[in-house]
Design a protein that fits this description.
The strands form two sheets. This protein has a six-stranded mixed sheet with strand order 6-7-8-3-9-10, sandwiched between helices. A four-stranded antiparallel sheet has the order 2-1-4-5. By secondary structure, it is an alpha/beta fold. It has two domains: about 5-90 and about 170-250, P-loop containing nucleotide triphosphate hydrolases (Rossmann fold), CATH 3.40.50; about 100-165, no CATH class. The protein starts with 5 loop residues before the first strand and ends with a helix. The protein is built from nine helices and ten strands.
Length: about 250
């Protein structure tokens, strides 16, 4: 059997008195596209951000691409733990809802920044790679444009190219289209489908049911900080998915 590329065991997180994640368990195999759905406040984004420790859980174990991180009981990683966190992050990329591009850098400079500063790739090679990736997301002609001159959809496609530049094993998408109007949303979803078709392991928090139906291998449905349903996408959207799921689908 394949070893899961992402495995979460007993992941919990509280914000004050509010338990946002409650002993969450999840496993994702290499090449799977898993869409995480659920109502607002269900813990979807907190789970996603916990997977590369952008949000530190209170307890649990993460295993991502062979890197195992156990959350310390006192909340503070020792030197060895910090090293494991750094190694885990090198295996992943995150695409944010708000793009998070550097406004003083061109599209190309945003894409290659990690290659040059983190991976120490020679600038000429990084530029060549960055141009290839911008072409892949349909933005070859925008290489020298600054974010202020790009539409929301174009900014998000630059952000996807930036993530791909780091050659991750897994990409996390956190509501990547929620800030976009329908036409720009389709641009971004088209690029995400293309990435999914390459066999990239993807975990996607979204309300885009059409993308989930067409591109996901599995759907994870969360509510009140727990995984309520985890099943193939065809089953999730089928007639026998259960009354709670049908209620959610009717609403959205």
């Amino acid at each position: 059997m394949n070893t899961p590329q992402v495995r979460v065991t007993g992941l919990s997180k509280r914000f004050g008195e509010l338990a946002v994640l409650k002993q969450v368990n999840l496993a994702v195999n290499a090449g799977e596209v898993v869409v995480i759905l659920g109502p607002s406040g269900s813990g979807k984004t907190t789970l996603l951000r916990s997977l590369n420790l952008l949000e530190q859980p209170d307890s649990g174990v993460l295993e991502v691409c062979g890197q195992r991180v156990e959350i310390p009981a006192n909340g503070r990683f020792d030197r060895a733990g910090r090293k494991q966190v750094a190694l885990l992050r090198q295996k992943t990329a995150m695409v944010f809802q708000a793009f998070n591009l550097f406004p003083h850098m061109t599209a190309l400079e945003n894409v290659i920044e990690g290659l040059v500063s983190v991976k120490k790739v020679p600038k000429a090679a990084a530029i060549e790679r960055g141009q290839q990736l911008l072409a892949r997301v349909g933005l070859a002609e925008k290489a020298n444009a600054y974010p202020a001159k790009l539409s929301g959809g174009q900014k998000q496609r630059v952000a996807i190219a930036r993530g791909l530049a780091m050659d991750p094993d897994v990409i996390f998408f956190d509501e990547p289209t929620s800030a976009l109007d329908p036409e720009l949303r389709d641009e971004v979803l088209g690029v995400m489908r293309e990435v999914a078709n390459t066999g990239m392991t993807m975990l996607v928090v979204t309300h885009e049911l059409r993308f989930a139906r067409e591109a996901a291998d599995r759907v994870v449905f969360m509510e009140h900080g727990v995984v309520v349903k985890d099943c193939p996408a065809a089953d999730f959207f089928g007639d026998n998915s259960g009354e709670r799921i049908q209620q959610f689908l009717r609403r959205y």
